[in-house]
């Protein structure tokens, strides 16, 4: 069965420093992978997606993620954090039997210190 | 496009009451979903629909019902509300993109409290 594990429940960085949010997935096939962001009291917004094309995926707001099949990882990075990046981030994998169903990680809360 | 809209934004229910959460999308997406998000947790799928007239259970369907009479609307019905249904509810819709992926578009959520 497919699953996704976000390795850190909270990450705290200083403004202007790099961001790394870690995600490992478990799947017996090549899934679609997504990162979504949720700002406080808001809905979820798609940051980026991987769909078996380029392994380095660029998203909105300067975020990118690299698909590493050998490590079953899909970590999210950004070179320089901004205060507006403070939010909850979800790593998501598509289902095997029904790729239109998504499986969500438990989320990583990113705190950005001034 | 308004995208995915949900009403109401907030609601307080007494135990045993019923209500319907409304969801509509104007993107002509075939697929629609209802999730619940409990504090500090990810999203759990309640019900989903692959098209008008077709619905199926997700991971946590107990205590809920859905219908899909049109492509645009996907209401979620809570019967006999219980405190365990206190949560934030998100509706989403999706389509199959050219890459074969189904990226989902989310509504702003309904915050429900059952007391």
Q: For the largest interface in this structure, which chains are involved and how many residues does each contribute? A: A-B, 24 and 28 residues
How much is the average pLDDT of chain A?
Answer: 91
* Beta fraction of chain B: over 45%
Radius of gyration based on Cα positions of chain B? 14 Å
Q: Mind telling me the C-alpha Rg of chain A? A: 13 Å
How many extended strands of chain B? 11
Structure write-up:
The complex is a heterodimer of chains A (114) and B (115). Chain A has 114 residues and is mainly beta. Chain A has strands at 3-6, 10-14, 19-21, 23-26, 33-38, 44-50, 56-58, 64-68, 73-78, 87-94, 102-104, 108-113. Helix content of chain A is 0%, strand content 53%. In chain A, strands 2, 5, 6, 10, 11 and 12 form a six-stranded mixed beta sheet that branches. A four-stranded antiparallel beta sheet of chain A has the order 3-9-8-7, with no helix packed on it. Chain B contains no helices and eleven strands. In chain B, strands 2, 4, 5, 6, 9, 10 and 11 form a seven-stranded mixed beta sheet that branches. In chain B, strands 1-3-8-7 form a four-stranded antiparallel beta sheet, with no helix packed on it. By secondary structure, chain B is an all-beta fold. Chain B has strands at residues 4-7, 10-13, 19-25, 31-37, 43-51, 54-57, 64-66, 76-78, 87-94, 104-106, 110-114. Chain B is globular, with a radius of gyration of 14 Å. The chains are: A mainly beta (114), B mainly beta (115). Chain A binds chain B through residues 9, 32, 34, 36, 41-46, 49, 51-53, 90, 94, 99-102, 104-107, and chain B through 4, 31, 33, 40-45, 48, 50, 58, 90, 92, 94, 96-97, 99-109.
């Amino acid at each position: 069965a497919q699953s996704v594990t976000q390795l850190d429940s909270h990450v705290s960085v200083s403004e202007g420093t790099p961001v790394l949010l870690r995600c490992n997935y478990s799947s017996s096939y090549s899934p679609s992978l997504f990162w979504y962001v949720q700002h406080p009291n808001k809905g979820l917004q798609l940051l980026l997606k991987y769909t078996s094309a380029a392994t380095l995926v660029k998203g909105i707001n300067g975020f990118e993620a690299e698909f590493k099949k050998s490590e079953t990882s899909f970590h999210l990075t950004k070179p320089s954090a901004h205060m507006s990046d403070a939010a909850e981030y979800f790593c998501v994998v598509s289902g095997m039997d029904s790729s239109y169903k998504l499986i969500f990680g438990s989320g990583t809360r990113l705190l950005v210190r001034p | 496009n308004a995208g995915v809209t949900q009403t109401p934004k907030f609601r307080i229910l007494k135990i045993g009451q019923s209500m319907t959460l409304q969801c509509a999308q104007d993107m002509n997406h075939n697929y629609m979903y209802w999730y619940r998000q409990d504090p500090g947790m990810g999203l759990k799928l309640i019900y989903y629909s692959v098209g008008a007239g077709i619905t199926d259970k997700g991971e946590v369907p107990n205590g809920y019902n859905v219908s899909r009479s049109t492509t645009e609307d996907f209401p979620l019905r809570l019967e006999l509300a219980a405190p365990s249904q206190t949560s934030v509810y998100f509706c989403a819709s999706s389509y199959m993109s050219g890459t074969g992926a189904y990226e989902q578009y989310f509504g702003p959520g309904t915050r429900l409290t059952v007391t």
